[in-house]
Amino acid sequence: MKEIIPIVLVIIGALIGAGFASGQEIYSFFYAYGIYGIYGIIIMCILLGILIYKSLEIIYKRKINNYNDFLGIFIRNLKVRKAVNIVVNILLLISFFIMVAGFGAYFKQEIGISKIIGSIILILLCIFVFSSNIKGVLKVSNIVVPILIIFITFLGFKNIMTISNVRTEIIKKRWLLSSLIYTSYNLILLIPVLISLRKQITKEKNIKLISVITTMTMLILSFMIFFLLGKAENSEIEFQEMPIVYIISKYFFEYRKIYAFIILVSIFTTAISVGIGFIQNISNNSKNYPQVVAFMCISSLIISNFGFSKLINFAYPFFGYAGLIQIFMILILNI
User: Distance between CA 327 and CA 90 in Å, rounded?
Assistant: First the structure.
């Protein structure tokens, strides 16, 4: 378990970003479908667990070092492979931009400080972690992700009975497709992170445990956020950019500052996870590593000015549909 838990925490840290902890993702992809959102969460977590298991098996057995090598297993045409790799790198970069924008937006909304200052603070923290490569990501995840898990679970259990508030009719159609798209875009972000963790896995048998623990943790956390959303009427939260923040502020004011910390931590863990995935994908050697870090951080300051919600609404649905092809390829591959 000494090897397994740190790896699980990095994976969870990559999955629980600003969109998840703020409730925006769970609301949009699951809660908006009423009771059917519960089925969607179950399907998403099981499918995600299977895909993490198969992906880690591929990465471990074939000694995959970067995303291009991973794609080479499925795509023989070099030009197509390069094009797909570029698309994935763009998504990783945009995801980093979204985290930087979210960090800045939260500083402006909750503290009243300019969002550019908040963005700079996150960038400086990321540079510090990136300087020690994947080991820095492991250390940070080992500290902050357990705090995230405990607090979200605590609040969720306090409100587990609010499941009765969830509307039973179909609010939106295509709940199954929504679940698949959510799994899909998360997997695109996750594969480079899983590749960066290859050298941390010393035994093949640990892969199954890593997948099972990750699946169960995501299932619990997703349900806890879902139950928390049930605390408020749908009319109160459907237009909120960060619905859980609204609920905490209105119904659990005593936990407001703690959850502010949780949101910032969740943004940080996702930023370093997708950031390290992008850097290791782009860096050909240790010499150009600092240049890649500098490019990513400087460009994030510029792009993050477009705004948190605009970046999410632009990027995630598009890459979610594109990632459905990747899910199919991984599932049918005979390892």
Answer: 19
pLDDT of residue 236: 83
Total H helices, total E strands in the chain: 15, 0
Residue spans per domain, the chain: 4-332
Both tokens of 297, joined, read 């951080």
- Alpha-carbon span 23 to 132, nearest angstrom: 31
- The model's pTM: 0.85
Residues near 72 by beta carbon (within 8 Å), at least 6 away in sequence: 81
For the chain, which ranges sit under pLDDT 70? 18, 133-134, 160-172, 284-287, 305-316, 334-335
Q: Which CATH superfamily is domain 4-332 in?
A: Amino acid/polyamine transporter I (1.20.1740.10)
